[in-house]
Amino acid sequence: MELLEEEFPSARLVVYKVCEQGCYDIDVLSAFDHAIADGVDIISLYMGYPDGSLELTSDPFAIGSFHAIEKGILTVNAAGNTGPDFSSIQNYAPWILTVAASDIDRKFVDKLLLKNDATLVVSIYVLSS
Q: What does the CA dihedral 24, 28, 15, 7 come to, rounded to 10 degrees?
């Protein structure tokens, strides 16, 4: 945590409880609205419809993340891998940065340019078991 405080002194973590008694579209969209209103820089979530069957125009994750990207807020979401077919994903909106797991043994290194022109180096190690 100390490294983050030194490199990004204005960084803060905001956590929203989205699904309390079931998970309804209105709850998801409300959470996006709150995050946007709170001025977050990135929204990270690991949710989606189990079968990825919704069209983008009716998927609350796609709709909420679209509103976020319009305000310059990146949404990062897990791809999911529950089907309907092997290697299919749940979250596929082109304005969402979709992340997934893999079983290849490689290292990916890249740089992210942040709003304040700071650069964040990201390393992802994927090890075969």
A: 160
